[in-house]
Structure formats: structure tokens, C-alpha cells
Amino acid sequence: MEETLKLILTELHDLKEGQQEFKEELQGLKESQQEFKLGLEELKESQQELRKDVSIIKDNLINGLGPYFGQIEKHIGDQTSELKEVLEDQQKVIDILAVRSLKHESDIKDLKHILRNQ
């Protein structure tokens, strides 16, 4: 009977040790879970900061490039106007030269006619 009691006591002691190990592992799991929650919270905060940064960059691009595109449009419009004026001037010169050419051809015909009739 004494041996049975010793065996029971030993098993109780083993159970207590097992229970203590289980409690320690459970505590470790709880700590790991808490660390995971903290990491997840930091990740959420970082994600929110990234969203803010992306929003700021997008606003800067839109607001910064808008006036720049306006300046480009104005420059293109100015250059187009200048080009149009130059083309109009060139067309006037071409028209004048065409009239002169016709007059010269007519004069040459007249001269040829006069020379033939002499």
C-alpha cells in the first residue's frame, strides 16, 4: 500500500510538473500573441501613413503639374501663333513672286513677239 501511495504521489507530482509546463507554454503563446497584435497594429499605422503619403504625393502632382501644363499650353499657343504669322508672311511673298513671275513671262512673250516682228 505504501508503494501505491508513492506511485500515486509520483504521478501527482508528474501531473503538477506537466501542468506547470503547460502553463508556461500557454503563457509563451499569450506573449507571442500579444507581440503579434502589437506588430499588426504597427503595420496598420504604417499602412495609414503610406496612404497619407500617397495622397500627399498625388495632390502635389496634380497641383504641381496643373500650372506646368497650363504654361506648356500657353507656350504652344504662342509658338503656333508665331508660326501662323510667319506662314502668312511667306504666303504673301509667294503670291507676290507668282504675280511677278506671270508679269515677267508676259513681258518675255511680248519681247519675243517684238523681236520676231522686226
Q: What structural class should be given to the helix and strand makeup? A: mainly alpha
Note the main sheet.
none
User: Termini, distance in Å?
Assistant: 166 Å
The ordered string of helix (H) and strand (E) elements is H
Point out poorly predicted stretches: none
Tell me the number of strands. 0
Overall mean pLDDT stands at 91
Q: Please give the share of residues in helix.
A: over 70%
Q: Into which percentage range does the β-strand content fall?
A: under 5%
Shape: rod-shaped
DSSP helical segment count: 1
Rg (CA only): 49 Å
Characterise this structure:
It is a single chain. Helix content is 98%, strand content 0%. The chain has one helix at residues 2-117. The longest helix is centred in the middle third of the chain and has 116 residues, at 2-117. The protein is rod-shaped and about 165 Å long. The model has no long low-confidence stretch (mean pLDDT 91).
Give the helices and strands, then pairings.
Blueprint (H helix, E strand, L loop, with lengths): L1 H116 L1
Keywords:
118 residues, rod-shaped, mainly alpha
Quick take:
The protein is 98% helix and 0% strand. It is mostly helical and 118 residues long.
